[in-house]
Amino acid sequence: METERLIIRLADASDVPEIIRYYRENRAHLQPFSPKFEPELFDPAAWRDQVAARERELALGESFRAFLFLRSSPERIAGNINLTLVVRGVSQSCVLGYNLAEAEQGHGYMTEAVRAVVRFAFSDWGLHRVAASYMPRNERSARVLERAGFKIEGRAPGYLCINGRWEDHVLTAITNPDPAPSGG
After folding, report:
1. What is the pTM of this model?
2. In terms of Cα–Cα distance, which of 125, 132, 112, 117 is closest to 174?
3. How many CA atoms lie within 13 A of 144 on its CB side?
4. What is the CATH number of domain 6-175?
5. CB neighbour list of residue 177: distance below 8 Å, 6 or more residues apart
6. Which of 9, 20, 26, 137 is paired with 52 by a 20 to 30 Å CA distance?
7. Distance CA 64, CA 85 (A)
8. pLDDT digits (tens, 9 = 90+) for 13-46
């Protein structure tokens, strides 16, 4: 998937050193908003397994767990974006997650990426709803989701375990503007 400034794609085996570099260099920036970084996050063998698993999941329509590359630096990871927890049947929904390198903040890259993967979820997968959540103090994420058309649906106390603590989250979602039912 490509946008004006981004290449959004699954990693391949040759990207493993770059993936590890991304997480090492951005650990302090990402950790406050992420589950605890486990040692596997920096293990090449674990990432080679992840590359294969992510390809299988995409082929089965179970998830799209991709990395963001700037078109101007197509070999360097700038962030990641994921569509997971895909539910078919009467729900036709998934959950969006993402993060961006500290050095790439403030350029609109994540809004561009979110819009692209939401289009993919609606047009390619035929989903009806994409949900996303953010911690109330994560103002950048709130703005990304708002700019991408997500609407606040509520607040969930102690929703996700982030960096070893149960954190409150603001719940948001966007629905497909073509409401033709495709499930049960």
Report:
1. 0.93
2. 132
3. 27
4. 3.40.630.30
5. 122
6. 26
7. 10
8. 999 999 999 999 999 999 999 988 888 889 999 9
**CB burial class (10 A; 0-12, 13-18, 19+) of residue 5?**
middle
Separation CA 15–CA 36 (nearest Å)? 23
Query: Computed over its alpha carbons, how large is the radius of gyration of the chain?
Result: 16
Residue ranges of the chain with per-residue pLDDT less than 70 = 179-184
Alpha-carbon distance of 39 to 162, in angstroms, equals 16
**Three-point CA angle 12, 77, 148, nearest 5°:** 110
Instruction: Count Cβ neighbours within 10 Å for each residue of 51-88 and write b for 16 or more, e otherwise.
Output: beebeebeeeebbbbbbbbbeeeeeebbbbbbbeebee
Q: Are 69 and 77 in contact (CB under 8 A)?
A: yes
| Cα separation values, 47 from 10, 53, 178, Å | 12, 9, 37
DSSP 38: P
Q: What is the mean pLDDT of the chain?
A: 94
